[in-house]
Each structure stands twice: as structure tokens, then as C-alpha cells.
Design a protein that fits this description.
Layout (H helix, E strand, L loop, with lengths): L20 E2 L1 H5 L7 E6 L15 E3 L16 H10 L7 E5 L1 H16 L5 E4 L2 H7 L30 H9 L3 E4 L3 H5 L23 E2 L16 H11 L8 E4 L4 H13 L5 E4 L2 H5 L10
Parallel strand pairs: 1-5, 2-3, 2-4, 4-5, 6-7, 6-8, 8-9
Helix pairs in contact: 3-8
Length: 293
């Protein structure tokens, strides 16, 4: 295996909910465990076909999770059908991983959580760490038998924010975290550097929002989430966030902010964090919506 900096065990990093993370070793030891379902979710939806963890199936964030017409997620029947096609049974542990330090893996987990699916996990380090450790990859696509899982109706209230929620939050000076790049936050760009500049008519940020780029939560040398003390330095000491306050995170379309939502909710244990998936593509196009630059 390639030499990577030594990683502190997950259980020793001080997280509020260390059980939501599993290591590459944990996954490697359970490749033959039928009750562990691996799902790869990438920004690059073609990346899975070039090689993936043996036994893993692909989540296409565009076509699998979204309603084909309305800008919204699948309804209950569509989502349950997806999970059953993936071969997921009642009681299975679902482990997400992907490219870009699990940026899209946390997005998929967040959508699954809207439906109350239990036993969701993230493989710490994602695809990048698995490959850096020279672990096996497969180009074979599994063909699972239909699963038996049952899911309830989608419940957005606890972890999803809509534009009217954000407007009310701004009016009461609630805590907002803009997880985009500094250039986007300042209004100089409508998308990340090195990407097409698209998505909104105006640049800037929601009034009162702090700027904490999502990637700061990950150690770039190890691809692992930073320990809790380093995360508290970023979010609490630098930005003044408090675990008992209501917080809304946003980005451009809600995917990067799902990563920060995961960090705040599960690694730091904040109970009242919501992801605004409309994010800047909605806010930057709203007539008369307030912005700051």
C-alpha cells in the first residue's frame, strides 16, 4: 500500500456520533457480508464504471435521486423502488463512499435520511483513500436480487430548509453557513473555480452567512474527516457557531452543504442543522431576495 499519514482511529477523534463513520479496513473486512450494502456516489457519474469497490453499486445523483420533472427528490414509492432495485433489505447497513472526499456520498446519505432509512454510514476517506491504499477495484456491476426494504413517507421538516424557511431565518438573524468557495461567497463567481460559471443571475451570499468552504472539514493529506477538536476550531472558535442553535447550510445546489450538514450534525453533534438544497441557484434568482457581497 502507498504510504499515507497515520490516521487516528475513528473512535478516538472525539466525534459525537463516531458510529456513522466506518474505515476502509472495516469495509475491506466485510466485502462478503451480504448485510452490508456499498453505494458509490460521485460527482463524475461515469467514474464508477472505471473501477469501484467490489460489490458496490452506483448511485447516480442526477437520475436516481431526483424527480424527473419537478425540482425535488423522489416520492416514497419511487425511492422505495430504487432501494429495492439496489437489493437493499430490511436491517441492512448502507455504506456510502465516493469521489471528492465523499462530497456526493454525504449528499446521498442526506437524501436517504429524508426517508428515515436506518443504519446509514460513510466510509471515511472515500474513493481516494481506498485507491491510495491500493485496495482492489472491480469493473463488474453486481446484479442483486430485488430487496425487501420498506420506507416511510419523506419527511423534510427536520433536516431540509426551503426558501421561506431561509427568509424567516434571515429575519431573525439565524446562523447561516455558506460552504462555497470564497470567490462565490464574495459574488465574483456563480460556480466554483475551474467549473463553468453558471447557475444564478446574481452573485453574493445570503445576508449574515459565514463562509466556511466545505472542504476544510477534511484533511487533504489523508482524505479523512478532521478530528472533533479541529472541527470545533473551525466552526465554533472561528465562526462562533453553537451546538444548540438553529443552523442552515447552503451552497449552489445543496450538495457541498450536505457535507457540512453531516459534519455539524454527526461529527459535532449539532441537533438543529438543516440543508438548504435550493441554495444559490434558487436564492440568486429570486426576485427581491436580499443578498450581500
Amino acid at each position: 500500500m502507498n504510504a499515507l499519514p497515520t490516521a487516528t482511529p475513528i473512535e478516538d477523534r472525539g466525534y459525537a456520533h463516531p458510529e456513522v463513520l466506518v474505515s476502509t479496513d472495516w469495509v475491506s473486512d466485510r466485502l462478503d457480508d451480504a448485510s452490508v450494502k456499498l453505494l458509490e456516489s460521485n460527482e463524475d457519474v461515469l467514474l464508477y464504471d472505471t473501477g469501484h469497490i467490489p460489490g458496490a453499486l452506483k448511485i447516480d445523483w442526477v437520475n436516481d435521486l431526483n424527480d424527473p420533472v419537478t425540482r425535488d427528490y423522489l416520492d416514497r414509492d419511487g425511492f422505495q423502488g430504487l432501494l429495492r432495485r439496489l437489493g437493499i433489505d430490511e436491517g441492512d447497513t448502507i455504506v456510502f463512499y465516493g469521489d471528492k472526499n465523499n462530497w456526493w456520498a454525504t449528499y446521498a446519505l442526506w437524501v436517504f435520511e429524508l426517508f428515515g432509512v436506518p443504519k446509514l454510514r460513510i466510509m471515511d476517506g472515500g474513493r481516494a483513500r481506498w485507491i491510495a491504499e491500493e485496495r482492489p477495484l472491480s469493473e463488474d456491476t453486481p446484479q442483486p436480487s430485488p430487496g425487501t426494504i420498506q420506507v416511510g413517507e419523506r419527511d423534510d421538516a427536520a433536516i431540509r430548509a426551503f426558501r421561506e424557511d431561509v427568509l424567516a431565518h434571515v429575519e431573525r438573524s439565524g446562523a447561516l453557513v455558506d460552504v462555497r468557495s470564497p470567490e462565490e461567497y464574495r459574488g465574483e463567481r456563480m460556480h466554483m473555480p475551474d467549473y463553468p460559471n453558471e447557475g444564478a443571475l446574481r452573485g453574493g451570499h445570503i445576508p449574515g452567512a459565514s463562509n466556511v468552504p466545505w472542504s476544510r472539514a477534511v484533511n487533504p493529506d489523508t482524505h479523512l474527516f478532521r478530528p472533533a477538536d479541529e472541527l470545533k476550531q473551525i466552526y465554533e472558535e472561528e465562526q462562533g457557531l453553537q451546538g444548540d442553535e438553529e443552523i442552515i447550510a447552503y451552497c449552489r445546489i445543496g450538495e457541498r452543504s450536505s457535507h457540512t450538514w453531516f459534519v455539524l450534525r454527526y461529527l459535532l453533534g449539532y441537533e438543529q442543522v438543516r440543508n438548504y438544497d435550493g441554495s444559490w441557484t434558487e436564492w440568486g434568482n429570486l426576485v427581491r431576495a436580499p443578498i450581500e457581497r
